[in-house]
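Q: Could you fold this chain for me?
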Amino acid sequence: MSRDRDDLIGALSGDLQPVKPVLRIDAMALLWCSISALYVIAVTQLLGPIRSNALAQLVGEPRFLIETLSGVLAITVTSLIVFRAGIPGALTRRFAAFGVVMMLVWLSSYIVGLVSPALEPSMLGKRPHCVWETFVYALPPMAAGFVLVRRLYPLQPVQTAMCIGLVAGMIPALYMQIACMYVPAHILQMHILPGLLVALVGAATAWLCRPRKD
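A: Sure. Below is the predicted structure, expressed as structure tokens.
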């Protein structure tokens, strides 16, 4: 019996060849994140220009620049988490914890801003429908993320879908930092909150679409 089993294993594995990781999973994550960001920037510009002094503020206000870059880093790391979660064993707890910490650091900067804002609060650049822009712009990137990750093998699909929605929601939320008015309370309510709701939509979608057991 043991010899037969060894012969069977040998027959099945004899023609196997080593393969590269599926599309270099990190590259896939960065490509999805980059294309999603370009899409958000393009559609945002179609409805109106960014705040007139936003670029000057990025150059002249170091704290605002750091706040923005921390958002870019948090979104990028979470994108890597999303796709690594689709390959069993590719996502470590340490890297996942790093992503959570980076996201919390970025979002907490707006809470700190309620007391000590990075910029002088101003109504300049106010977009009347920014709350809907943030939510709606996130939906196509989220759908694309679902399609890509579904081709992998996420062991925790609901959590992975929530992270996809989080990234998709935070991209327009971050861009609104320069496209819309800078008032921390407004940012938290009209930009960040809709982005977080997209994460919940992602989790709910995965839960509703999960395979049912008889």
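A (continued): The two ends are 36 Å apart (CA to CA).
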